[in-house]
Protein backbone atom coordinates (compact mmCIF):
# COMPACT_ATOMS: atom_id res chain seq x y z
CA UNK A 1 0.00 0.00 0.00
CA UNK A 2 2.83 2.37 0.90
CA UNK A 3 4.62 1.60 -2.39
CA UNK A 4 1.49 2.45 -4.38
CA UNK A 5 1.19 5.79 -2.59
CA UNK A 6 4.84 6.60 -3.32
CA UNK A 7 4.40 5.70 -7.00
CA UNK A 8 1.32 7.90 -7.25
CA UNK A 9 3.23 10.77 -5.65
CA UNK A 10 6.13 10.36 -8.09
CA UNK A 11 3.73 10.39 -11.05
CA UNK A 12 1.97 13.47 -9.68
CA UNK A 13 5.27 15.34 -9.49
CA UNK A 14 6.66 14.02 -12.79
CA UNK A 15 3.70 14.83 -15.07
CA UNK A 16 3.93 18.66 -14.68
CA UNK A 17 7.68 18.49 -15.29
CA UNK A 18 7.22 16.43 -18.44
CA UNK A 19 4.50 18.80 -19.70
CA UNK A 20 6.69 21.83 -19.04
CA UNK A 21 9.62 20.27 -20.89
CA UNK A 22 7.37 19.38 -23.84
CA UNK A 23 5.94 22.91 -24.08
CA UNK A 24 9.41 24.37 -23.76
CA UNK A 25 10.67 22.27 -26.66
CA UNK A 26 7.80 23.54 -28.84
CA UNK A 27 8.31 27.15 -27.78
CA UNK A 28 11.98 27.23 -28.66
CA UNK A 29 11.83 25.07 -31.77
CA UNK A 30 13.41 26.67 -34.84
CA UNK A 31 10.95 27.87 -37.48
CA UNK A 32 10.54 25.56 -40.46
CA UNK A 33 11.93 27.14 -43.60
CA UNK A 34 11.73 25.78 -47.14
CA UNK A 35 15.47 25.16 -47.25
CA UNK A 36 17.11 22.52 -49.41
CA UNK A 37 19.76 20.10 -48.15
CA UNK A 38 22.74 19.10 -50.26
CA UNK A 39 25.65 16.90 -49.27
CA UNK A 40 29.29 16.51 -50.22
CA UNK A 41 31.14 13.69 -48.43
CA UNK A 42 30.84 14.36 -44.69
CA UNK A 43 29.50 17.89 -45.26
CA UNK A 44 25.79 18.76 -45.11
CA UNK A 45 24.57 22.16 -46.35
CA UNK A 46 21.08 23.61 -45.83
CA UNK A 47 20.48 26.37 -48.41
CA UNK A 48 17.59 28.83 -48.63
CA UNK A 49 16.33 32.38 -48.16
CA UNK A 50 16.76 34.20 -44.87
CA UNK A 51 13.29 35.77 -45.23
CA UNK A 52 10.50 33.81 -46.84
CA UNK A 53 8.76 34.28 -49.11
CA UNK A 54 11.44 36.24 -50.99
CA UNK A 55 9.93 39.38 -52.55
CA UNK A 56 10.89 41.24 -55.69
CA UNK A 57 13.11 44.27 -55.01
CA UNK A 58 13.29 43.63 -51.24
CA UNK A 59 16.53 43.18 -49.29
CA UNK A 60 17.03 39.53 -48.32
CA UNK A 61 19.77 37.02 -47.58
CA UNK A 62 20.72 33.61 -48.87
CA UNK A 63 21.68 31.41 -45.95
CA UNK A 64 23.85 28.30 -45.86
CA UNK A 65 24.01 26.18 -42.71
CA UNK A 66 27.06 23.91 -42.78
CA UNK A 67 27.41 20.88 -40.49
CA UNK A 68 29.29 17.59 -40.45
CA UNK A 69 27.17 14.53 -41.15
CA UNK A 70 29.26 12.27 -38.90
CA UNK A 71 28.71 14.19 -35.66
CA UNK A 72 26.20 16.95 -36.56
CA UNK A 73 28.55 19.67 -35.37
CA UNK A 74 28.65 23.07 -37.15
CA UNK A 75 31.62 23.77 -39.40
CA UNK A 76 33.56 26.92 -38.50
CA UNK A 77 35.12 29.16 -41.18
CA UNK A 78 33.45 27.03 -43.84
CA UNK A 79 33.88 29.52 -46.68
CA UNK A 80 37.54 30.32 -46.24
CA UNK A 81 38.24 28.30 -49.39
CA UNK A 82 34.77 28.07 -50.91
CA UNK A 83 32.32 30.49 -52.54
CA UNK A 84 28.60 30.89 -53.12
CA UNK A 85 27.33 31.90 -56.55
CA UNK A 86 23.72 32.70 -57.42
CA UNK A 87 22.52 32.25 -61.01
CA UNK A 88 19.36 33.00 -62.96
CA UNK A 89 19.17 32.40 -66.69
CA UNK A 90 22.50 33.44 -68.16
CA UNK A 91 23.38 35.81 -65.29
CA UNK A 92 25.51 34.89 -62.27
CA UNK A 93 26.87 36.70 -59.24
CA UNK A 94 29.41 35.70 -56.58
CA UNK A 95 28.04 36.58 -53.14
CA UNK A 96 29.90 37.94 -50.14
CA UNK A 97 29.39 35.27 -47.49
CA UNK A 98 29.56 36.32 -43.84
CA UNK A 99 29.17 34.34 -40.59
CA UNK A 100 25.64 34.39 -39.18
CA UNK A 101 24.48 34.63 -35.57
CA UNK A 102 24.54 30.85 -35.01
CA UNK A 103 27.55 28.57 -35.30
CA UNK A 104 27.79 27.02 -38.76
CA UNK A 105 25.31 29.52 -40.25
CA UNK A 106 26.47 31.78 -43.08
CA UNK A 107 24.57 34.59 -44.81
CA UNK A 108 24.96 36.63 -48.00
CA UNK A 109 22.87 39.76 -48.71
CA UNK A 110 20.99 40.02 -51.99
CA UNK A 111 18.13 42.03 -53.54
CA UNK A 112 16.24 39.83 -56.05
CA UNK A 113 15.34 41.82 -59.18
CA UNK A 114 13.47 39.17 -61.16
CA UNK A 115 10.55 36.91 -60.37
CA UNK A 116 10.97 33.16 -60.37
CA UNK A 117 13.51 30.62 -59.23
CA UNK A 118 17.24 31.10 -58.65
CA UNK A 119 20.01 28.54 -58.37
CA UNK A 120 22.72 28.62 -55.69
CA UNK A 121 26.10 27.04 -56.46
CA UNK A 122 28.63 26.18 -53.74
CA UNK A 123 32.13 25.38 -54.98
CA UNK A 124 35.55 24.97 -53.41
CA UNK A 125 36.79 23.15 -50.33
CA UNK A 126 34.98 23.00 -46.96
CA UNK A 127 36.71 21.35 -44.03
CA UNK A 128 39.02 19.49 -46.42
CA UNK A 129 36.08 18.18 -48.46
CA UNK A 130 35.80 19.09 -52.16
CA UNK A 131 32.42 20.72 -52.82
CA UNK A 132 30.70 21.35 -56.15
CA UNK A 133 26.97 21.45 -55.41
CA UNK A 134 24.00 23.43 -56.64
CA UNK A 135 20.40 23.74 -55.42
CA UNK A 136 17.28 25.57 -56.55
CA UNK A 137 15.81 27.85 -53.91
CA UNK A 138 12.27 29.15 -53.43
CA UNK A 139 10.76 31.33 -56.18
CA UNK A 140 10.91 35.11 -55.84
CA UNK A 141 7.38 36.53 -55.58
CA UNK A 142 5.79 39.87 -56.45
CA UNK A 143 5.28 42.26 -53.51
CA UNK A 144 1.61 42.66 -54.41
CA UNK A 145 0.98 39.18 -53.02
CA UNK A 146 1.45 40.67 -49.55
CA UNK A 147 0.19 44.23 -50.19
CA UNK A 148 -2.57 45.46 -47.88
CA UNK A 149 -4.80 47.34 -48.23
CA UNK A 150 -5.25 47.20 -51.98
CA UNK A 151 -4.11 50.35 -53.76
CA UNK A 152 -6.65 52.39 -55.71
CA UNK A 153 -6.64 52.57 -59.52
CA UNK A 154 -4.89 50.04 -61.68
CA UNK A 155 -3.93 47.01 -59.55
CA UNK A 156 -0.80 46.62 -61.66
CA UNK A 157 0.18 50.25 -61.14
CA UNK A 158 3.20 50.27 -58.83
CA UNK A 159 3.43 54.10 -58.77
CA UNK A 160 0.65 55.99 -56.92
CA UNK A 161 -1.82 57.57 -59.34
CA UNK A 162 -1.70 60.92 -57.52
CA UNK A 163 2.03 61.09 -58.12
CA UNK A 164 1.55 60.26 -61.80
CA UNK A 165 -1.07 63.03 -62.10
CA UNK A 166 1.27 65.53 -60.46
CA UNK A 167 4.05 64.62 -62.87
CA UNK A 168 1.69 65.05 -65.84
CA UNK A 169 0.57 68.48 -64.58
CA UNK A 170 4.15 69.58 -64.03
CA UNK A 171 5.19 68.42 -67.50
CA UNK A 172 2.21 70.26 -69.02
CA UNK A 173 3.19 73.47 -67.21
CA UNK A 174 6.79 73.15 -68.32
CA UNK A 175 5.66 72.52 -71.90
CA UNK A 176 3.52 75.68 -71.80
CA UNK A 177 6.40 77.72 -70.44
CA UNK A 178 8.70 76.40 -73.17
CA UNK A 179 6.15 77.34 -75.85
CA UNK A 180 5.79 80.84 -74.36
CA UNK A 181 9.55 81.27 -74.28
CA UNK A 182 9.80 80.16 -77.93
CA UNK A 183 7.12 82.69 -78.91
CA UNK A 184 8.92 85.49 -77.05
CA UNK A 185 12.21 84.56 -78.67
CA UNK A 186 10.58 84.57 -82.12
CA UNK A 187 9.02 87.99 -81.47
CA UNK A 188 12.39 89.34 -80.39
CA UNK A 189 14.01 87.94 -83.52
CA UNK A 190 11.34 89.51 -85.72
CA UNK A 191 11.76 92.90 -83.97
CA UNK A 192 15.53 92.76 -84.44
CA UNK A 193 15.13 91.97 -88.14
CA UNK A 194 12.67 94.86 -88.57
CA UNK A 195 15.03 97.23 -86.76
CA UNK A 196 17.85 96.16 -89.03
CA UNK A 197 15.67 96.80 -92.06
CA UNK A 198 14.70 100.26 -90.74
CA UNK A 199 18.35 101.12 -90.12
CA UNK A 200 19.17 100.04 -93.67
CA UNK A 201 16.39 102.25 -95.04
CA UNK A 202 17.55 105.27 -93.02
CA UNK A 203 21.13 104.77 -94.19
CA UNK A 204 20.05 104.56 -97.79
CA UNK A 205 18.04 107.79 -97.48
CA UNK A 206 20.96 109.49 -95.73
CA UNK A 207 23.32 108.43 -98.51
CA UNK A 208 20.87 109.75 -101.12
CA UNK A 209 20.53 113.08 -99.30
CA UNK A 210 24.29 113.35 -99.04
CA UNK A 211 24.70 112.81 -102.77
CA UNK A 212 22.01 115.38 -103.57
CA UNK A 213 23.63 117.88 -101.24
CA UNK A 214 27.03 117.32 -102.74
CA UNK A 215 25.56 117.76 -106.23
CA UNK A 216 23.97 121.07 -105.15
CA UNK A 217 27.22 122.31 -103.72
CA UNK A 218 28.96 121.40 -106.95
CA UNK A 219 26.43 123.32 -109.01
CA UNK A 220 26.77 126.36 -106.72
CA UNK A 221 30.55 126.32 -106.98
CA UNK A 222 30.33 126.06 -110.76
CA UNK A 223 27.95 129.04 -110.88
CA UNK A 224 30.25 131.15 -108.78
CA UNK A 225 33.16 130.28 -111.01
CA UNK A 226 31.23 131.25 -114.16
CA UNK A 227 30.12 134.55 -112.61
CA UNK A 228 33.63 135.41 -111.56
CA UNK A 229 34.95 134.73 -115.02
CA UNK A 230 32.29 136.89 -116.59
CA UNK A 231 33.12 139.80 -114.26
CA UNK A 232 36.78 139.49 -115.06
CA UNK A 233 36.12 139.80 -118.80
CA UNK A 234 34.05 142.99 -118.34
CA UNK A 235 36.79 144.57 -116.37
TrEMBL record:
Keywords: Membrane, Transmembrane, Transmembrane helix. The chain crosses the membrane at residues 209-231. This is YtkA-like domain-containing protein.
